[in-house]
Amino acid sequence: MAKSKFEYVRNFETDDTCLRNCYIVVRLDGRNFHKFAEQHKFTKPNDNRALGLMTRSARSVIEELEDIVIAYGQSDEFSFVFKRTSTWFKRRASKLMTHVASQFSSSFVFYWKEYFGEQPLLYPPGFDGRVVLYPSNRNLIDYLSWRQADCHINNLYNTVFWTLVQKGGLTTVQAEDRLKGTLAADKNEILFSEFDINYNNESALHRKGTTLIWEKRDETVTKRMKRPNEEEKDVVVTRSRRKVEAYHCDIIGDQFWEEHPDILEDDN
Ligand code: DGT
Ligand code: MG
Ligand code: MG
Ligand code: MG
Ligand code: MG
C-alpha cells in the first residue's frame, strides 16, 4: 500500500523499549487518596474494604495481562513485576504501564460495589504509574523489601497515632507531638504498656501488605462418565490449575523466596 505524505510523523515516536534481561516493575499509586479516603469515609488507620478492592483490582491486572510473576500492594499503591524474559508489547514501557494503570483503574470502579456496598463512588479515581527496571534478583527483592518496609513504618506509626487518638483521647495535634522523635521500639512500648496491644498480633494484612503470586493447585473434580458398554459412574479427575494466591507474610527475609523458587528466574 502506498504511504501517505503524513506517514513521516511516525518517526517522532520515541523508543521506550525496556532493557533486556531486567525485571520490569510497574508501580501504581492512587491520585490524591488522602482526599479520596476522607470523602469515602475510609476507616482509620486501615480500611479493609479499600484494601480488599485494591487487591481485587490487582488480581484482575495479573489475570488479564501477560507475564506478571508477582505483585505487592499496601496503602493506595500496588507494584507489578513482569518476568525478565517477557516480550509482551515488545517490552515497550508506555504500553505496559498504561495497560496496568487502565486495567487497574477500571477494575477499581467495576468492583467498587462488591466492597463498598451501597456507599456510592463519588468521583472517578485515578492512579499514576511508573516503570523501573531491576537487573538482578537481589535488586528486585530489595525493591519489594523497600515497599514492605515502608508499609511497616507507616502502619506502626498510624496504628499508634490512631490508638492515641481513638483510645487515648488525645487530639491529633497532641498525638503527633507525642510521637515526634520516637523510634519503633518506643512506639511498640506505648502500644503495649498503655493500651495492652502487642503490635505483632495486629492484622498481618495491615502489617505486611498483600503479595500476589501464581500458584499451581491440584484440583479434583468428580465427573459422571459413561463409557461404551459400561454403567455410568463417578470418576475422580485431577487437574493442575494456575491460580493467583494472596499472602500477607514477610517477603524481606529469605524464607518466602525459598518457599516459592519459581517466582524468580536464574540470575545467570
Ligand atoms: P499522591 O499519591 O501524591 O497523589 O497523594 P496521596 O494523597 O495519594 O498520598 P500518598 O499516596 O502518599 O498516601 C496515601 C494516602 O491514602 C494517605 O493519605 C492515606 C490514604 N489511605 C490509604 N489507605 C488508607 C486506608 O486504608 N484508610 C485511610 N483512612 N486512609 C488510607
Ligand atoms: Mg504519591
Ligand atoms: Mg497516592
Ligand atoms: Mg501512596
Ligand atoms: Mg490499538
From TrEMBL:
<dbReference type="GO" id="GO:0005525">
    <property type="term" value="F:GTP binding"/>
</dbReference>
<dbReference type="InterPro" id="IPR025845">
    <property type="entry name" value="Thg1_C_dom"/>
</dbReference>
<feature type="binding site">
    <location>
        <position position="29"/>
    </location>
    <ligand>
        <name>Mg(2+) 2</name>
    </ligand>
</feature>
<feature type="binding site">
    <location>
        <begin position="75"/>
        <end position="76"/>
    </location>
    <ligand>
        <name>GTP</name>
    </ligand>
</feature>
<keyword id="KW-0342">GTP-binding</keyword>
<feature type="binding site">
    <location>
        <position position="29"/>
    </location>
    <ligand>
        <name>Mg(2+) 1</name>
    </ligand>
</feature>
<dbReference type="GO" id="GO:0000287">
    <property type="term" value="F:magnesium ion binding"/>
</dbReference>
<dbReference type="GO" id="GO:0006400">
    <property type="term" value="P:tRNA modification"/>
</dbReference>
<feature type="binding site">
    <location>
        <position position="30"/>
    </location>
    <ligand>
        <name>Mg(2+) 1</name>
    </ligand>
</feature>
<keyword id="KW-0479">Metal-binding</keyword>
<dbReference type="GO" id="GO:0008193">
    <property type="term" value="F:tRNA guanylyltransferase activity"/>
</dbReference>
<dbReference type="InterPro" id="IPR024956">
    <property type="entry name" value="tRNAHis_GuaTrfase_cat"/>
</dbReference>
<keyword id="KW-0547">Nucleotide-binding</keyword>
<feature type="domain" description="tRNAHis guanylyltransferase catalytic">
    <location>
        <begin position="6"/>
        <end position="135"/>
    </location>
</feature>
<keyword id="KW-0808">Transferase</keyword>
<comment type="function">
    <text>Adds a GMP to the 5'-end of tRNA(His) after transcription and RNase P cleavage. This step is essential for proper recognition of the tRNA and for the fidelity of protein synthesis. Also functions as a guanyl-nucleotide exchange factor/GEF for the MFN1 and MFN2 mitofusins thereby regulating mitochondrial fusion. By regulating both mitochondrial dynamics and bioenergetic function, it contributes to cell survival following oxidative stress.</text>
</comment>
<comment type="similarity">
    <text>Belongs to the tRNA(His) guanylyltransferase family.</text>
</comment>
<feature type="binding site">
    <location>
        <begin position="29"/>
        <end position="34"/>
    </location>
    <ligand>
        <name>GTP</name>
    </ligand>
</feature>
<dbReference type="Pfam" id="PF04446">
    <property type="entry name" value="Thg1"/>
</dbReference>
<comment type="subunit">
    <text>Homotetramer. Interacts with MFN1 and MFN2; functions as a guanyl-nucleotide exchange factor/GEF for MFN2 and also probably MFN1.</text>
</comment>
<feature type="binding site">
    <location>
        <position position="76"/>
    </location>
    <ligand>
        <name>Mg(2+) 1</name>
    </ligand>
</feature>
<feature type="binding site">
    <location>
        <position position="76"/>
    </location>
    <ligand>
        <name>Mg(2+) 2</name>
    </ligand>
</feature>
<dbReference type="InterPro" id="IPR038469">
    <property type="entry name" value="tRNAHis_GuaTrfase_Thg1_sf"/>
</dbReference>
<keyword id="KW-0460">Magnesium</keyword>
<dbReference type="Pfam" id="PF14413">
    <property type="entry name" value="Thg1C"/>
</dbReference>
<feature type="domain" description="Thg1 C-terminal">
    <location>
        <begin position="139"/>
        <end position="253"/>
    </location>
</feature>
<keyword id="KW-0819">tRNA processing</keyword>
<dbReference type="InterPro" id="IPR007537">
    <property type="entry name" value="tRNAHis_GuaTrfase_Thg1"/>
</dbReference>
<protein>
    <recommendedName>
        <fullName>tRNA(His) guanylyltransferase</fullName>
        <ecNumber>2.7.7.79</ecNumber>
    </recommendedName>
</protein>
<keyword id="KW-0548">Nucleotidyltransferase</keyword>
